[in-house]
Design brief:
heterodimer; A: alpha/beta; ten-stranded mixed beta sheet; 20 strands; globular; disordered N terminus; B: alpha/beta; six-stranded mixed beta sheet; 10 helices; ABC_transporter-like_ATP-bd (chain B)
């Protein structure tokens, strides 16, 4: 371990204690006690090295070799957002700049009866006991240094509660912008989302960066999905060449609920997404779609978990990647079928196109099945563009570059078409088309 | 229109075409026959520009231009069309979108403005009718899950849309039952014109009952060893290829 590694960890711990020292009575609150437990876990675990099985192919050495300002102010306004070419949509839009809610840029349009939505900081001011009771509930057993770190430092993010039987008409779009124009910035947003019985909602998290300095985002989202609820959840990352992103989305599903996840990584220096779904109910269905496009020396790692705890549920997973240049991709998909989870159906597939001899893809399906009456399947493929298909298209007059674009766009289509928020899907189609045309 | 002169080509160092000579004039139909492994499909592939083959000698002049230095897409834009023996399945790309891209890329090559959606659809519907292609196949992914007959019909349909000057049919009859064969052949015949030439590559004579050639050439060991009128095909059907082989071996 290098001195620098010890440095960031020590700095963070020192920073925590410094904040705690000026908290007065708040330090004894339930919320803070949970944070303190997070810090203790982080202190115990430390940043993972590649000796850690879950981090074997993803080295965070670079990420933790510098320090970040976790309290950076930002003057970001509407003008800067124009530069980001954010798609327009009639939606509930919440902006978080360097991890903190920006009310000026945000717009909440759904009626109050349909949804309770606010920043986590505001929610805590209004009802500390309620926020504390949800906070870190789904992630409490996570033995993960970054989740623990987020728990220790959680300040802001979104707090959403959708009452039973409500169908939220407008999508919710959470925009996280790192303003890295002046300095290395860090943010640790914490999102808590609780979807009531038979409630319906579509939501998206979009991560962007402004400026060329480093950004480090360590995000955690906890989503409770009550009985018969239907949740569409998308995460889109289009960050800078200097953006480091670690994110965990932890989901718990109850009986007869439906959960759809779409995780699309368009750009970013280093990305690790953990998507953990616990199917803690019968007749649930969970769907996980993923797409990633690293180029240059980018690194994208998707770790997913479908944890079947009760009988008669289904999980279905499709991840796809196109890797160029010297990029690296990692896919680790775990399926657990617990002893009670008879009649489980679990499917997993990961398909990759590797366009350069210097790019690498590591895939690891991991099935642990403790019930006997189940249907599980998994498959991974890693290959090149189909030369025969390419020749077929060229023999009809389509240029090589256009044929490549068409084939790769088609490769992505079955993931992109799953995104049910129009502006998000159209945005993805545009960015993907541009990205495919760029080489 | 097409002039092949002493064409030699090899794959992985093995010479397959050992000096092919062939003249095709506008409107003519030439059949290339021959036993398995004689180089028939290689000839079709080399003309279309398949890159696995290395041309080691000779030239191919099409409409006054030497095409051997051209990319496959340039040859297509110049008017050469290869109907594949094994059409490729391409998931995620609809037939209609594929063809629209092809038509407009060729128009771009010729300096023409792209067709708009309405013009394109109108043209495609007419062509589909011409070759008895079911409209519903157009919206499906290209060749994905198509039957053997549907795939071959799709080749002829693409040919109708792209209107090539020279169509090369590579073993179009393979894998087809007699009904499918007839429908495909009718499609090809409906596209015959005084300007459009056709090269029919086939192992069996039966396709030539439907697409009647002006000339028949026998390819053996990488050379055209015999040429004649359409009756030559019937003779081959009756006697097989052995007598040709014997003739060639006798000459040495």
């Amino acid at each position: 371990m290098s001195n620098e590694t010890i440095d960031l960890k020590t700095r963070l711990i020192t920073d925590f204690h410094a904040r705690e020292a000026v908290m007065n009575g708040e330090a004894s609150s339930e919320f803070h006690q949970k944070k303190r437990a997070g810090l203790a876990l982080f202190e115990q675990l430390g940043f993972p090295t590649i000796k850690h099985e879950e981090w074997k192919y993803s080295n965070v050495r670079d990420l933790i070799s510098v320090s970040y300002d976790f309290n950076a102010e930002s003057s970001i306004g509407l003008a800067e957002l124009e530069d980001l070419k954010v798609p327009k949509q009639e939606a509930n839009i919440l902006y978080f700049v360097n991890g903190r809610y920006n009310e000026e840029l945000s717009a909440i349009i759904s009626p109050v009866g349909q949804i309770t939505i606010s920043s986590l900081a505001d929610a805590y001011k209004n009802d500390p006991a309620k926020v504390a009771s949800f906070f870190n509930e789904l992630t409490k057993d996570a033995n993960d240094a970054f989740t623990a770190l987020n728990t220790a430092f959680a300040q802001d993010g979104v707090f959403i509660h959708i009452p039973d039987n409500q169908s939220v008409e407008h999508p919710i779009i959470l925009r996280f912008v790192s303003d890295a124009r002046e300095q290395n910035v860090g943010s640790q947003p914490r999102n808590i989302i609780s979807v009531g019985k038979n409630a319906h909602v579509k939501l998206a998290e979009a991560f962007r960066t402004l400026g060329d300095q480093r950004s480090f985002t360590n995000a955690v989202t906890e989503i409770q999905v009550a009985e018969e609820a239907n949740v569409q959840y998308y995460k889109v990352q289009n960050e800078s060449e200097n953006a480091y992103h670690i994110g965990t989305t932890q989901v718990r599903m109850l009986d007869r609920s439906h959960f759809y996840a779409g995780t699309v990584t368009l750009n970013g220096k280093f990305t690790r997404n953990n998507l953990n779904i616990v199917l803690d109910g019968e007749h649930c269905d969970a769907h996980m779609y993923g797409l990633y496009f690293p180029d240059g020396s980018q690194h994208v790692d998707n770790h997913t978990v479908a944890d079947h705890q009760k009988p008669n549920s289904e999980s279905n997973e499709l991840y796809k990647g196109i890797l160029r240049d010297k990029s690296k991709g990692v896919f680790n998909g775990k399926i657990f079928v617990r002893p009670d989870a008879q009649k489980t159906n679990a499917f997993q597939s990961c398909k990759n196109i590797v366009l350069s001899p210097d790019a690498t893809m590591n895939t690891k399906p991991q099935l642990e099945i403790f019930a006997d009456d189940v249907k599980c399947s998994h498959g991974t493929t890693t290959g090149q563009i189909d030369e025969e298909a390419l020749f077929y298209m060229r023999s009809r007059g389509i240029s090589q570059s256009e044929a490549m674009s068409l084939l790769m766009f088609a490769f992505c289509a079955d993931v992109v078409s799953q995104i049910k928020i129009d502006s998000v899907r159209e945005y993805l189609e545009n960015v993907i088309t541009q990205k495919l045309a760029s080489k | 229109m097409l002039s092949i002169n002493d064409l030699r080509a090899s794959i992985e160092g093995k010479e397959i075409l050992k000096g092919i000579n062939l003249e095709v004039k506008p409107g003519e139909v030439h059949a290339i026959m021959g036993p398995n492994g004689s180089g028939k499909s290689t000839l079709a592939s080399v003309l279309a520009g398949r890159e696995e083959y290395e041309v080691t000698g000779g030239n191919v002049v099409f409409d006054g231009k030497d095409i051997l230095e051209m990319a496959p897409e340039e040859r297509a834009a110049e008017g050469i069309f290869l109907a594949f023996q094994y059409p490729v399945e391409i998931p995620g790309v609809t037939t209609i979108n594929f063809l629209k891209t092809a038509v407009n890329e060729i128009r771009k090559y010729k300096g023409e403005s792209p067709l708009d959606a309405a013009q394109f659809l109108k043209m495609v519907r007419e062509k589909a009718k011409l070759v008895s292609m079911n409209d519903s196949l157009l919206k499906r992914a290209l060749n994905e899950g198509f039957s053997g007959g549907e795939k071959k019909r799709n080749e002829v349909f693409q040919m109708a849309v792209l209107e090539p000057k020279l169509a090369i049919l590579d073993e179009t009859d393979s894998g087809l039952d007699i009904d499918a064969l007839r429908i495909v052949a009718e499609g090809v015949n409906s596209l015959r014109s005084p300007e459009r030439s056709t090269i029919v590559v086939t192992h069996y004579q039966r396709l030539l009952d439907y697409i009647v050639p002006d000339y028949v050439h026998v390819l053996y060991k990488g050379r055209i060893v015999k040429s004649g009128p359409k009756e030559l095909a019937l003779e081959l059907e009756e006697k097989g290829y052995d007598w040709i082989k014997a003739e060639v071996e006798a000459v040495g």
